[in-house]
Specification:
Heat Shock Protein 90; alpha+beta; five-stranded antiparallel beta sheet; 9 helices; 47% helix; Helix Hairpins; 12 strands; 394 residues
């Protein structure tokens, strides 16, 4: 009984089945003898060769179909197969045709054996992969173009960053030199205006007293401004090397420096457990001093209550300084970290508007960021990050 599905016709010979196969297979199939001459080819290959009948290829070789260079390589491959019996599998090769146009094919060639197993030639099957190769080439060129654009953009950004770094360095140097050199003449102005105030206060008319008071106040504020500018410029030029320190010690140092302000205001400062970090000891202490000092300065009618804490989060330490003071409108949350940005008149709150800019520069130098969470009348929480120390494997 015949099995289900396609069955071989009883009257069909192997030769006839092969001919049918070669007529309808879409791939290029060919049989060659030991001299690499075609014995049979598929109709698809005959069409590519420009032959009306596959039989027209019999007895011909690749030298009749391709350029000499390609034909010589194909001949060498086939002779190697005949000599060793080792097939060539999925070799992608360029085909150069007599009219000069080029195509690409993925070719597999195996030895052709007779009934006794003797190698009598080769059998090959090729599939045209020209479109795929073209697409790969276009993709490669596009990738190369993108890489060139990225390289050019990276070089441009590097130049811009270098120029910005150089400009910043020059500005910092200028700020330092200007602040340093201005101190002496300003000290003289301040000294003489204060001397005038002590010697002639109440001895001249009311206008003179007011003018002297303005001069003394202006000189004092200018001195403070120059000192703050000098501190800001020194952050990068005179900072200490980052080292492993206890941030608890830096915070305690800041609290000690603020003890008079804390006593005068009755402030309560609670410090939680703070971690070991890699930092500049003096700058970290200054950071805590500025933030805690601001929490005391910008208080309301209530006793200042300040909480200092830290938590680990995603490979970094997040420090927080929380107060119950006047708070800050969200419109100014970014602005307050810029130089000379004041939200309140000097008559109500003293300062030069540089303190938080110094905080930001310190945090930037330590590879972190600083921000504030606050609402008017509900206090403020200043937060800043410092990367956690990377633990090396023992």
């Amino acid at each position: 009984m015949a099995s289900k599905g396609a069955s071989r016709p009883e009257t069909a010979t192997d030769q006839e089945l092969l001919e049918v196969f070669l007529q309808h297979i879409p791939d290029d199939i060919y049989f060659k003898d030991r001299d690499s001459r075609f014995v049979r080819i598929s109709r698809a290959l005959a069409t590519r060769f420009g032959l009306s009948d596959p039989a027209d290829a019999v007895g011909k070789s690749d030298f009749d179909m391709f350029t000499a260079e390609h034909a010589e390589q194909a001949f060498a491959d086939e002779q190697e197969i005949i000599r060793t019996g080792r097939p060539v599998v999925a070799k992608e090769e360029k085909e150069t045709w007599p009219d000069g146009h080029e195509t690409w094919a993925s070719t597999t060639k195996v030895p052709l054996r007779d009934r006794l197993g003797k190698i009598v030639g080769t059998v090959g099957i090729s599939r045209d992969v020209t479109e795929r190769r073209r697409a790969q080439h276009e993709l490669h060129e596009y990738k190369k173009h993108l890489e060139e654009l990225v390289a050019a953009r990276t070089a441009e950004l590097t130049r811009a960053n270098n120029a910005l770094a150089s400009s910043n360095a020059e500005l910092e140097k200028f700020a330092y030199v200007a602040s340093h050199d201005l101190q002496e003449p300003l000290r003289m102005v301040a000294s003489y205006t204060q001397l005038l105030a002590r010697r002639y206060q109440g001895k001249l008319d009311a206008d003179a007293d007011e003018f002297i008071a303005f001069a003394v106040d202006g000189a004092s504020r200018m001195q403070q401004l120059i000192q703050d500018l000098l501190s800001y410029s020194r952050l990068a030029t005179q900072g200490q090397q980052l080292e492993l320190i206890e941030s608890q010690v830096a915070c305690n140092t800041a609290v000690m420096d603020l003890r008079l302000s804390i006593e005068d205001s009755g402030a309560v400062v609670n410090i939680g457990t703070l971690p070991t970090v890699r930092a500049d000891p003096a700058q970290l202490a200054q950071l805590f001093l500025n933030l805690i000092g601001n929490a005391i300065k910008y208080r309301n009618e209530h006793t200042p209550e300040i909480q200092v804490a830290a938590r680990a989060e995603s490979g970094r330490w997040v420090f927080s300084v929380q107060d119950n003071g006047i708070g800050i409108d969200s419109r100014y949350h970014s602005r307050i970290f810029e130089m000379f940005q004041r939200l309140h008149p000097r008559e109500k709150y003293s300062g030069t508007g540089i303190g938080l800019a110094i905080c930001k520069k310190i945090v930037d130098r330590h590879g972190g960021r600083i921000w504030v969470e606050s609402r008017p009348g509900h206090g403020s929480t200043f937060l800043f990050t410092i990367p956690q120390i990377e633990r090396t494997a023992e």
